[in-house]
Amino acid sequence: MQLLKLTSSASKLLTGATTGRALIARTLASNPAPMERLLQVGQQRINIVEAGTGDRGVLLMPGALGSAWTDFKPQIEQLPALLPNHRIVAWDPPGYGKSRPPNKTFGLDFYEKDAEAAAQLMEAIGLKRFS
């Protein structure tokens, strides 16, 4: 009797794992490949990489010397399967990566300017709410 319970539990576990793998495979198959493009946002050309098709936005912001691909390649490739209702957007802020010229100037307000550019970008691609 005890052996039967273990077998039943093992069967449920295996069935759940198989179902989970099938769901991930289906999600991966339904998400188009990441797309990189340059957008004109205000006076600046901004490079972005988009993945996923959801109506919720996730903005990936690179660090000091990084770019969309160098800082976020694993996230761009894997997050759409984990967050099927989200569109993943990695960007090169103005003055970084492929969003040049202009070259970046680091005044006291450069974080504020990057935040404003990010909000304008997300609005331009139709994502009014994002994290």
UniProtKB/TrEMBL annotation:
Keywords: Hydrolase. Residues 58-129 form the AB hydrolase-1 domain. The keyword Membrane does not apply. One of its GO terms (molecular function) is serine hydrolase activity. Gene3D superfamilies: alpha/beta hydrolase (3.40.50.1820). It comes from the Eukaryota. The keyword Hydrolase applies. InterPro entries: AB_hydrolase_1, AB_hydrolase_fold. It holds the Pfam family Abhydrolase_1. This is Valacyclovir hydrolase.
